[in-house]
Design brief:
The complex is a heterotrimer of chains A (482), B (99) and C (485).
Chain A (H helix, E strand, L loop, with lengths): L3 E12 L36 E2 H13 L3 E2 L2 E2 L2 E4 L9 E4 L6 E8 L6 E12 L3 E4 L8 E5 L6 E7 L6 H17 L12 E11 L9 E6 L2 H20 L7 E6 L4 E4 L12 E2 L6 E2 L2 H9 L5 H12 L3 H7 L3 H14 L2 H15 L5 H5 L5 H12 L5 H14 L3 H8 L7 H14 L1 H8 L4 H13 L6 H11 L4
Helix pairs in contact in A: 2-3, 5-6, 7-8, 7-10, 10-11, 13-15, 13-16, 14-15, 15-16
Chain B lengths: L7 H10 L6 H22 L19 E2 L9 H5 L5 E2 L2 E5 L5
Antiparallel strand pairs in B: 2-3
Chain C lengths: L6 H10 L4 H19 L2 E4 L1 H16 L11 E5 L26 H8 L3 E6 L33 H8 L5 E6 L5 H7 L2 E4 L19 E6 L2 H11 L29 E5 L9 H16 L3 E5 L4 H19 L18 H12 L2 H14 L5 H21 L5 E5 L14 H5 L6 H6 L3 E8 L5 E8 L4 H14 L11
Parallel strand pairs in C: 2-3, 2-4, 7-8, 7-9
Antiparallel strand pairs in C: 1-3, 4-6, 5-6, 5-10, 9-11, 10-11
Helix pairs in contact in C: 2-3, 5-6, 7-15, 9-11, 9-12
Classes of the chains: A alpha+beta (482), B mainly alpha (99), C alpha/beta (485).
Chain lengths: 482, 99, 485
């Protein structure tokens, strides 16, 4: 049992899905040719001036409300100074003493009930450009800069150091991602960089009040990276403390290839950002009514939706969590379940058959799915009323996906209607029994597998269209009499 | 109130923050001049400003916002025209070291 | 001689057909060619551009469809205002070859009004200075005495108007950089209310203080220029949505019954007695015209200088951080890494005064010192602004000297602190954001211009100009011109 308690805080940067940048009208679309989405403002040309993007403020408020933060109606931007070539003005317009929002909570579901992780603050700032090094950063003689990304709106969300394990940190990050994706404010894609995470971790003797020496971890490009890097750090720091070593407050980079964190070149001094209120931007003095309007427009959030799915549809928490990953999938499920009834069955089809076909589980993929929720409901209704068997239904599903037609059309055209006529099936069963006397003997001899074989033969004989339950019942009645 | 004496180390530190390479002679001259100016600033520190709000903006404007509507970006050639070292579509810079 | 005319007189000649914009442009260009080798006001003369723009104006007048009072009028801009395709160096080696890809809003508005660009004007580097001696390139001379400074930082803008090398120019004022050169060069220089005129395209020195304003030969001319350049700009978040008045129309009111305040703190030991005498005489003139005068107190005046020399450099250290040799401007070659490149570039590209202010500003903002220096300065600023607000409850405008002395000799003021003291009467209005104009208030026995300053309430340029106009028309200072060899 480790004598240490792990203390983790996460700093998340979310790129906002606005059409234009934070302080100018350049487009934010991903993938444009280098330096084609810039202007004197986002390149920090002499004489240029910033103008705040209204929608970025709205997205920030939306997120802050979803996290239960207190909105600072009076908030302002500040300049944060440091030199780096991806930052055109050598200062970043950010927020410092008066951020947009503070003191919220993110609820994490737990075995013993939900645990609230504190959100210290949420503020807005501008993103920096992209550097491409001529070789590896450590050895490159030169680098190249693309400012397309410079000026894209970023939302920084800083948690309180309330996380107590790498797993919990992973859960927090996933939950936060789900929220920002739900709100439509961010794509939540860590691999592409629209969601970024730095972690702070320290250990202390369990029960101690004072925090241990804090280490910052960077270069975490996926949820797995976050959990693995933190797990590594817990071990590394524990070993150091056990050996009586003093830990150094530093920044370390996660090296996923080698599975360890590496110290960055030690700094001679901490950054002195020389924050002061941005003189080019008048402060914000938001109206409470505006905030309430935004609050009223918030969609049902992931946690509430999950709880509702479990309660209303009898789903397991795991099923609910998978279905609620994105609003698109959750809405799809609900629409299908409302039409078809049988939510458990619908859930099963969505989570297995549908997700197997879809290229992704995001809103765009769901929206582009050739099988609409209504069509899925239609298919399930055909199973439910006995028109087709479950097995046939899977084939029909695939055909629906490829052709975009509805179930009834396909079933009708291909004559896939289940054979449920007892008389007709009785005849087939008699035929099969007559054709396989040896198997019948096997069955009499106690070989259960023989029954399966006979069922299979009946199905084969009816091109799979026989109602399996009926086939089983008929065989069950006739076999003993043979 | 003690007169702020700015040391050579202070000046060096500030020069580093400001990315200004100063020779020894310049460092010393800067130290002397800054010292004199900061001594003059003492006059400010003697003023009692308890309860006085700072003024960051001379005129009382608030909430200046713009709609999220795209505007045409500048042409790449225009923006790269002044580049001291242009590499195709990029700005090129010498070796970046982590500080 | 066309180049000696005011905007109004020149405009009248265009309208009655006795002169054309092209002729005016040629006249000014000839005068620049003849005189500027001595005065050295111009960084760049845009001859081809001027003639092309003048030709377009010619056509408009011929068609009987001129755009307004500024159509065809030859003007020049302080080299701190961005002009697309035309070098904008801000008096600095670090931008010596910088060609902006866009126009400053004020230039766009002047062009829309039909004005003709003669060129870009010399200045103290990044607008930091009071003599134009801090220009990295050369020092502009005062047309009234070529051995003396024209003032700064808009020295070129002031000198050009005085020497009739432009009908009007634009300068910028952060702590006095329009009003002080106007006083030294004997012309009208207006600093509008902060936010009255767009700063988009104005290369920033101190963002919360910088304002663009005109230099002209008369107050009426200044009213015309202000009308064109003032007004909200959606690209400048600090520009006000206050409607723009008909400033020219508003001049006619006279000063009968107006209450004018004479600030006790603006008459100090050590100021030039001729300046004091001239200003007191000016107050008498205004009284004679029907104004009521009374003494007012602006008790925090002396603290304004210290506050300004913290706020200005702090903001400047931030605004000038972008000059690093990465995207534009000078880059010193041969550095081993980017830190060395940037440090050497900035060391080579910035002059002494600029470096001094960057260092001071960086220090004032740095950890541990913010509250004592920058924070304190911002609080003092509140007190200075409050002084004006309280005074304006009793008076409609304030009349005062512009500077404590007249133009000094080139090279005379080496000590930076001594140079800073020049601005003691202009800084407070900048800190408070209120408008101020300097206009000719007389001459010393030696023939050097003395400036009279009128300061008004925020957005009350109308009253400021009205008082100035009444005084101007009751005297003949504005008719005197320097004799140039």
């Amino acid at each position: 049992m480790s004598p240490y308690e792990t203390v983790i805080g996460l700093e998340v940067h979310a790129q906002l899905r606005t059409r234009t940048k934070m302080f100018c009208g350049c487009a934010t679309a991903f993938g444009a040719a280098p330096n084609t989405q810039t202007c004197p403002v986002c390149q920090g040309n002499p004489g240029s001036l910033p103008v705040i993007n209204r929608r970025a403020i709205e997205f920030g408020i939306r997120t802050a409300l979803a996290l239960g933060c207190r909105i600072n109606l009076q908030n302002r931007f500040a300049r944060k100074h440091y030199y780096y070539p991806d930052m055109p003005k050598n200062y970043q317009i950010s927020q410092y003493e008066e951020p947009l929002a503070e003191h919220g909570t993110l609820e994490l579901p737990g075995a013993n009930g939900a645990r609230g992780i504190g959100v210290q603050r949420l503020h807005l700032e501008e993103d920096v450009g992209k550097l491409v090094h001529e070789g590896e950063l450590a050895t490159a003689r030169a680098s190249q800069v693309d400012y397309n990304r410079a000026g894209v709106p970023l939302m920084e969300i800083v948690s309180k150091p309330d996380l107590r394990s790498p797993e919990e940190a992973g859960a927090y990050l996933r939950a936060l991602r789900a929220i920002v994706v739900y709100l439509g404010v961010c794509d939540g894609n860590m691999e592409e960089g629209s969601l970024r995470c730095d972690a702070n971790i320290s250990l202390r003797i369990a029960g101690a009040e004072v925090l241990g020496t804090k280490v910052e971890i960077k270069n975490l490009n996926s949820f797995r990276h976050v959990e693995h890097a933190l797990a590594y750090e817990v071990k590394r720091q524990a070993q150091a403390l056990d050996a009586g070593e003093r830990l150094v407050q530093e920044t370390r980079l996660w090296d996923p290839d080698r599975g360890r964190t590496v110290a960055m070149r030690s700094k001679e001094f901490a950054h002195d950002y020389r924050y002061f209120p941005e003189p080019d931007l008048p402060p914000l003095d938001l109206e409470a009514a505006t905030v309430e309007q935004i609050r009223a427009g918030l969609p049902e959030l992931p946690a509430a939706k999950r709880a509702r799915f479990v309660a209303a549809y009898g789903l397991t928490p795991y099923e609910a969590e998978l279905l609620c990953q994105g609003r698109g999938l959750a809405d799809y499920f609900e629409a299908a379940a409302r039409e078809a009834g049988k939510p458990k069955v619908v859930a099963n089809w969505v989570l297995n058959e549908l997700l197997r076909e879809l290229p992704g589980d995001d809103d765009a993929a769901v929206a582009a799915c050739p099988i609409t929720a209504s069509r899925l409901a239609g298919l399930l209704t055909l199973i439910d009323d006995g028109t087709i068997s479950g097995k046939i239904a899977k084939e029909v599903f695939e055909k629906m996906y490829r052709s975009g037609e509805d179930a009834a059309t396909i079933v009708g055209r291909e004559g896939l209607t289940q054979v449920a006529d007892e008389g007709a099936l009785a005849g087939v069963v008699d035929q099969v029994l007559a054709q396989h006397p040896k198997v019948v003997d096997d069955w009499r001899g106690g070989k259960k597998a023989a029954l399966g074989f006979l069922v299979g033969q009946v199905m084969k004989s009816t091109q799979g269209k026989a109602n399996p339950a009926l086939v089983n019942r008929l065989l069950g009645e006739k076999l003993p009499k043979v | 109130m003690a007169t702020p004496k700015i040391s050579r180390e202070d000046v060096q530190h500030v020069a580093r923050l400001a990315r200004l390479e100063l020779s020894e002679a310049e460092l010393e001259r800067m130290r002397v001049e800054m010292d004199a100016i900061l001594t003059y600033m003492d006059k400010l520190r003697s003023l009692d400003t308890a309860g006085v709000e700072p003024t960051s903006h001379a005129v009382p404007l608030h909430n200046v916002l713009r709609d999220d509507e795209p505007r045409p970006s500048a042409s790449r050639d225009d923006m790269l025209a002044n580049a001291p070292d242009r590499a195709g579509d990029f700005f090129r810079v010498p070796r970046i070291i982590e500080e | 001689m066309l180049a000696a005319l005011t905007i109004e007189a020149l405009g009248a000649r265009f309208r009655d057909g006795s002169a054309t914009p092209s002729a005016a442009a040629e006249a000014y260009l000839d005068r620049i060619a003849a005189l500027d080798p001595k005065v050295r006001a111009f960084m760049t003369v845009t001859r081809d551009t001027a003639l092309a723009q003048a030709a377009e104006a010619d056509a408009r007048f011929r068609a009987g469809a001129p755009r307004g009072p500024l159509d065809g009028i030859p003007i020049a801009l302080k080299d701190v205002l961005c002009t697309r395709g035309i070098t904008t160096a801000c008096g600095s080696r670090i931008l010596e070859r910088f060609v902006p890809p866009y126009d400053a809003t004020v230039y766009e508005r002047l062009r829309a009004a039909g004005a003709v660009l003669l060129g870009k004007l010399n200045m103290d580097e990044f607008a930091m200075g009071s003599s134009t001696e801090n220009s990295a390139f050369f020092t502009t001379r005062n047309p009234w005495d070529l051995g003396r400074v024209p003032g700064g930082s808009s020295g070129g803008s002031a000198a050009a108007v005085s020497a009739d090398m432009a009908a009007a120019t634009l300068g910028t004022d952060t702590g006095g950089s329009i009003r002080q050169p106007a006083a030294f060069c004997g012309n009208v220089g207006l600093k509008p209310t902060y936010g009255r005129v767009s700063r988009y395209g104005l290369v920033a020195f101190a963002s919360s203080l910088d304002q663009v304003g005109p230099f002209t030969k008369t107050v009426a001319d200044a009213a015309h220029v202000l009308r064109v350049i003032a007004g909200h700009d959606p690209q400048d978040s600090t520009s006000a949505e206050v409607p723009v008045s008909d400033y020219r129309g508003g001049l006619k009111g006279g000063v009968q019954g107006l209450r004018l305040g004479i600030p006790r703190e603006y008459f100090i030991d050590g100021m030039d007695p001729e300046v004091e005498r001239a200003v007191r005489a000016a107050v008498d003139v205004l009284r004679g015209l029907g104004a009521k005068t009374e003494e007012v107190s602006l008790p925090h005046t002396e603290y304004g200088l210290a506050a300004y020399y913290l706020i200005g450099p702090a903001e400047a250290s931030s605004n000038l951080a972008r000059y690093d040799g990465v995207r534009y401007g000078l880059r010193v070659p041969g550095a081993r890494d980017i830190v060395e490149m940037e440090s050497r570039t900035r060391a080579a590209g910035f002059g002494r005064e600029v470096k001094r202010r960057i260092m001071l500003g960086t220090y004032a903002l740095s950890a541990g010192y913010y509250d004592a220096y920058y924070g304190q300065a911002l609080r003092v600023r509140t007190l200075v602004a409050r002084d004006f607000r309280q005074a304006f409850e009793r008076v409609d405008a304030i009349v005062a000297p512009t500077t404590p002395s007249v133009a000094f000799k080139v090279g005379e003021k080496e000590d930076p602190l001594q140079m800073y003291l020049n601005d003691v009467f202009t800084i407070p209005a900048s800190l408070a954001g209120v408008p101020g104009v300097s206009l000719p208030g007389g001459f010393t026995l030696a023939g050097l211009p003395i400036g009279l300053q009128v300061i008004g309430k925020a957005y009350d340029e109308a009253t400021v100009l009205r008082v100035a106009h009444a005084y101007e028309q009751a005297t003949d200072w504005y008719t005197r011109k320097p004799v140039l060899p």
